[in-house]
Each structure stands twice: as C-alpha cells, then as structure tokens.
Specification:
Layout lengths: L5 H6 L2 H13 L3 H17 L1 H4 L5 E4 L10 H9 L3 E8 L4 E7 L6 E3 L5 E3 L12 E4 L3 E3 L4 E2 L5 H6 L8 E4 L5 E2 L13 E3 L4 E3 L7
Parallel strand pairs: 1-2, 1-6, 6-9, 7-10, 9-11
Antiparallel strand pairs: 2-3, 4-5, 7-8, 11-12
Length: about 210
C-alpha cells in the first residue's frame, strides 16, 4: 500500500487526513483484519512493558469495527494476573475516566458511533496505571498520533499523575511517514503493529 508523502501531508488538514485513513481501514478485508489483529496482539504481549511481572494495571481500549481488535491482548493480560482498565468516556466533561473491567461481554453501553462504554467499574487512580495502550487513526515515525478529533486521549495524557508509558496500537497500514500536528497533540512513547514494535523514547529504565 502506497505511503502518504510529505508534500501530500502539507496539503492536507487533519480532517482530510482522517478521511483518508478511515478509507484505508475500510479497504481491509475481514480476514486481513482478524489475522493482523492476532499478530499485533502477540507483538504487544511480547513487549517488556506489557509482560513485566511488576506491571499489574494495563489500560486497554475496545476497538471500533474496523480497528485492530484488542480482545486477545486483554485476555492475555487477565491470564497473566493483571488488572485491565478501559477508558470510560464522560461526554459532558469531555474526559476519560479509567475504570476496571472483568468481562468483555457484559457491563457496556454502545453509542451511535459504535463505541462500547463501560457502565460500571471502579475508577483507577492515574498513578496506579502501569501501561496505557491507546488507539489512533494514524501514527508517524516520530511518535505523533492522530485520533478521531475529540482530543480525549491528548487531555488524558497530560494528567500530572499519569506516569505510565504510552503505547500506540494499530495496523501497519496506519503508520505513515509524517502527520499534521498541533501544540495540543501528545506523542506516544512506542508503537506496536502487526509488523513491528517501534520505540520513540528510551524506556529501559521502566
């Protein structure tokens, strides 16, 4: 699949770029999505930041229909005895509340966009989270992330009590050379796809 070049990026604003990336995701077949999701989950579980025995609280996300499927990684976290936290979106206050989940089948509401939002679940202090695995429409070679436009994760990442590494999780097709960015965008520390694991920040001391 052709990479998007720097000249094209300069001509595109974020809205146009989101449309282009959403089209790219829609072009993938169901079989491709299933197989690539499995590979991406295996790569994520293999990282020291995920499997380290001292790490007990991992924040994941539930995927939209055409995103990389996180279910296998969540099940692996539970098998390793870890606590899994999901983002609960507060639409009125426009922020993310991290809450504990113990099931992938019950305890969710689904909004018009298809987002599954936890109904219950105990809130988790930001400084208890050991790893944040975040979605995105696209990521670039510098660790920049393009979300869906609500800036929920960018605001979440700036919380002073959040010290966990930030991991982008996506298909290889969502990695581009360069993204349009603004001052409010917060980069990730490393990226996991079905093809590779790429670090943008030295996490050896983690």
């Amino acid at each position: 699949m052709r990479q998007i070049g720097k000249y094209e990026i300069r001509l595109m604003d974020k809205k146009q770029f989101r449309q282009k990336m959403q089209k790219r995701l829609l072009e993938m077949s169901d079989l491709q999505r299933i197989e690539k999701s499995k590979k991406a989950c295996r790569n994520l579980v293999s990282t020291p930041q995920f499997k380290d025995a001292s790490r007990k609280v991992i924040m994941m996300f539930l995927s939209f229909e055409h995103e990389v499927d996180t279910h296998e990684a969540i099940l692996s976290a539970w098998q390793l005895g870890k606590t899994v936290v999901l983002q609960k979106i507060s639409w009125q206050q426009r922020h993310i509340i991290p809450v504990v989940i113990n099931s992938l089948t019950t305890g969710f509401s689904t909004d018009v966009t298809g987002l599954r939002n936890p109904i219950n679940g105990a809130p988790v202090p930001f400084d208890d989270i050991d790893l944040v695995v975040a979605p995105g429409l696209a990521f670039d070679s510098k660790g920049n992330r393009l979300g869906r436009g609500g800036s929920y994760y960018d605001r979440f990442f700036t919380n002073k009590d959040l010290r966990a590494p930030k991991c982008g999780f996506a298909f290889a097709e969502q990695l581009v050379e360069e993204l349009p960015t603004s001052d409010q965008d917060v980069p990730i520390d490393f990226l996991v796809t079905d093809e590779k694991i790429e670090y943008f920040k030295n996490l050896q001391g983690e």
